[in-house]
Amino acid sequence: MFPQMKFRVSGLDAKAKYILLLDIVAADDYRYKFHNSRWMVAGKADPEMPKRMYIHPDSPSTGEQWMQKVVSFHKLKLTNNISDKHG
After folding, report:
1. How far apart are the first and last CA of the chain?
2. Over the stretch 21-56, which tens digit does the pLDDT of each residue have?
3. Contact partners, residue 83, CB within 8 Å, separation at least 6
4. Nearest to 51 by CA among 18, 21, 31
5. CA-CA distance, 11 to 1, in Å (whole number)?
6. SS3 for 30-45, per residue?
7. Can you give the residue ranges of the T-box domain (predicted)?
8. What is the DSSP letter of 46?
9. pTM over cut 0.85
10. Is cis: bond before 47, omega within 30 of 0?
11. Which residue in 45, 47, 53, 44 sits closest to 82, CA to CA?
12. 49 near 82, Cβ under 8 Å?
């Protein structure tokens, strides 16, 4: 995914187990393109897709494990193909 999603997690119970999920929600009704080093409106957005949440592959892990490193969603795949079961 461009750009990569990376997070620092804090404030978790070190011994408790957590599952991290990523849910992406449209900000408005437009599609955008990255042009000349900035995002520009490029027309009306496609109809909204069914909701899907991406579970981080290290889930579940303890709070201690999540807080000791940067959490990256670098394997995330985005698609507007309804038949893609892994998007």
Report:
1. 11
2. 988 888 899 988 888 988 899 999 888 777 778 889
3. none
4. 21
5. 27
6. EEEEEECCEEEEEEEC
7. 1-87
8. P
9. no
10. no
11. 47
12. yes
Which residues are paired to 38 by β-bridges? 35
Amino acid at 67: M
- As a whole number of angstroms, the distance between CA 29 and CA 81 comes to 18
Q: List, in order, residues 6 or more apart from 58 with CB less than 8 Å away.
A: 20, 65, 71
CA atoms of 8 and 17, how far apart (whole Å): 17
Length of the chain as a residue count = 87
% of the chain beyond a pLDDT of 90:
44
What is the spatial distance between Cα 36 and Cα 42, in angstroms, rounded to a whole number? 13
Q: In this structure, what are the phi and psi dihedrals at residue 69, rounded to the nearest 5 degrees? A: -145, 165
Please tell me the distance from the alpha carbon of residue 87 to that of residue 83, in angstroms, as a whole number: 9
